[in-house]
Amino acid sequence: TYMTGIAMLIAGTAAFSTAGLFVRLIGRDAATLLFWRGIFTAIAIIAFIWWCERGGTFAQFRQMGWPGWMVATLNTASMAFFIVSLQYTTVANNSIIFGTAPFLTAGVAFLLIRERPTIATLLFSAIALGGAILVIGSSLSFSAERLIGDALAVLMTVSFAVKTVLVRQHRTRSMVPAACVGALLG
Known about the structure:
This protein is mainly alpha-helical. Helix content is 84%, strand content 0%. It contains 10 helices and no strands. It has helices at 2-17, 19-26, 30-53, 57-62, 65-88, 91-98, 101-113, 119-139, 144-169, 176-185. The longest helix is centred in the C-terminal third of the chain and has 26 residues, at 144-169.
């Protein structure tokens, strides 16, 4: 239902908002973080698929098709850009740049599936884009390292936006296995 979607969005946002903090607290290199994140995520997703499908776990993976593989690849890229970005820039910069995801997603949705954004989406997206431009502009006065981190955060956001639109475009196909494959690719 619509309310279930809202609740899931809020829960996902709350969980994701702690990711930068945990990456900083763990203090390991990006490859180590991606490896262990991928292993534990894949285990959790496989357990979820098994619980939902019982005997049909592997059938779910066989039915991914090219949309599932594209989503898996974009999921891998987005997470890799996220983790590596945090090695170079601040959590705040990374988060503010990612705040432009609705704007980019609306643009990609318009280009790929001709979905028209609402005026409210465009207005709030423009505000988020303005904030991201200020953040990237302020990084120019710090260091090339921070600018690299900000650029990686932009790539993370773009890959996330394209992934989101592909999931919506192929909403009749389960993308849960794609999330598992994306975690393992990472």
